[in-house]
Amino acid sequence: MVLDDISLAVKPGEVVVVSGPSGCGKSTVLRCINGLEQIQGGRILLDGAVVDGASKDIAAVRAKLGMVFQSYELFPHLTVIENVTLAPTVVLRRPKGEVESEALELLDRVGLKDRAGDYPRQLSGGQKQRVAIARALAMKPEIMLLDEITAALDPEMVHEVLDVILDLAREGKTMIIVTHEMGFARAVADRMVFVDGGAIVEEGPPDEFFDNPKTERARKFLHTFEYESVR
Amino acid sequence: MDLLGLLGLDVLFKGANALRLLGGLWVAVRISLISVAASIVGGMLFGIFMTWKNPVARVVSRIYLEIVRIMPQLVLLFIVFFGGTRALGLNIDAELSAIIVFSFWGIGEMGDLVRGALESIPVHQYEAAEALGLDRAQMYRHVVIPQAVRRLIPMSINLVTRMIKTTSLVMMIGVVEVLKVGQQIIEANRMTSPNAVFGIYGTIFLLYFLACWPISKLGERLERKWAS
Fold first, then answer.
1. For A171, which of A30, B72, B100, B171 is 20 to 30 Å away at the CA?
2. Which CATH architecture best describes the domain B3-227?
């Protein structure tokens, strides 16, 4: 069992950051929420309705959840703007012109309006990830699920991506964020959730979590981000 | 002897020889076209079938593919044309036999290429499509198949040209295609134009080139277009 006895409620407008050591199951939490991972027990509710990855209606549920992956996963055969407009035109069957102008606004927002006609392979990692964020936002999701979206990026590109997310948080977007960027987590989170061994070990406001972790495991985990001076 | 005679090209201008050769080429191209069309449609379906995890599906496709790979096309032609007539009492004409064998071969090989193309698409691409709310049909239509086709083009172009070239075998079961017509012309003019053997086979070489070259070029263009 990867996850055990996880109970997590997210309020509208809340930003929850999930962190924990590698392999602790934090990505699995996100993947369960939008039905990419089958659950053996328990329930996931979205607006009071059950999320079931095996059901036929899962596509409609997923349309309300915007997911961004660690490895961007843009569609390589489509241009930047086509990546953004695909789901709204195909899934929501909205008119192309309207979707396109919205897509351009979104691309403008992530600073990539001038790259609309390019293919993903012409972009840097950070740019790709910003397109992936725009692609998820184009579905006007109620909740954004971000799965270690900066883990594959060079350090100098991390900021340009996280700035976009900070902007979304300011706007009041509901988000569940899995990340190893502790500075970012502290800045963006309304609540920290610390997962270890497939269970929630500790949760609370970020200042409390970072300054006075209650559990030994959280303390140990936070300690791995610090270095002892040699002088 | 003038230059045309020396190269054995003079026979081309005797009677309807040039037209007959082109007619023979058309027979070869017709067999290829029908078989290639069957291979593309059948290969798509067989390729998807090969990605099933069902053990029976696996064994069936494995055996089919091994037969296609191991059996020389000539043996397959003989089995269907001669063997089919004797053992099963089927009276299929030579051209239809050729089409059956070439389609059987093409569907197997094309299926394996389709399977490879489908399996080379990372799981994450499927997940990204699913996460955006695309259903299965939409995912295949907009994300999986367009990418698979792009990976498929170079290998399938190679298969198609191989199929066209291999039609030269069908004269062995009595189909009068371009090579057979060429032999007939050479035989008929052995005394008057002994050099026809060079001229005719040289012309046939050119004809095969003209049939395959545009296909290779098209493949190259598509590859470049999708790579840039």
1. A30
2. Orthogonal Bundle (1.10)
Dist CA A51 CA A34 (whole Å): 7
A chain contacts of residue B135, beta-carbon cutoff 8 Å: 59, 91
Taking CB atoms and an 8 Å cutoff, what residues of chain B touch A87? 132-134
Contact criterion met (CB < 8 Å) for A91 and B130? no
Judged by a CB distance cut-off of 8 A, whether residue B143 touches chain A is: yes
Query: How far is it, in rounded angstroms, from Cα B79 to Cα B67?
Result: 13
Q: What span, in angstroms and rounded, lies between the C-alpha atoms of B100 and B106?
A: 10
CB contact under 8 A, B127 and A69: yes
Q: What is the pLDDT of residues B141-183, one digit of tens each?
A: 999 989 998 888 888 898 999 999 999 999 999 898 899 999 9
- For chain B, domain boundaries: 3-227
- Within 10 A of B127 (CB to CB), how many other CB atoms are there? 18
Give me the domains of chain A, ranges plus CATH numbers. Answer: 1-64+144-231 (3.40.50.300), 74-141 (no CATH)
Asked whether the beta carbons of B194 and B183 are under 8 A apart, the reply is no
User: How many angstroms separate the CA of residue A146 from the nearest CA in chain B?
Assistant: 12
Q: Residue B99 corresponds to which amino acid?
A: I
Q: Which of B138, B147, B150 sits opposite A90 (nearest CB)?
A: B138
**CB within 8 Å: B131 and A60:** no
d(Cα A67, Cα A31) in Å, to the nearest integer? Answer: 9
* Complex ipTM: 0.89
> Could B226 and A36 be called an inter-chain contact, meaning their C-beta atoms sit closer than 8 Å?
no
| pLDDT tens-digit series, residues A11-54 | 999 999 999 888 888 888 899 888 888 888 888 888 888 887 77
> For A171-190, how does the pLDDT look when each residue is reduced to its tens digit (9 = 90+)?
999 999 999 899 999 999 99
- As a whole number of angstroms, the distance between CA A156 and CA B40 comes to 47
For B142, half-sphere exposure in the C-beta direction (CA atoms, 13 angstrom radius) is: 25
Q: How far apart are CA A26 and CA B135, in angstroms?
A: 26
Whole-Å CA distances, B164 to B169, B200, B202: 10, 19, 17
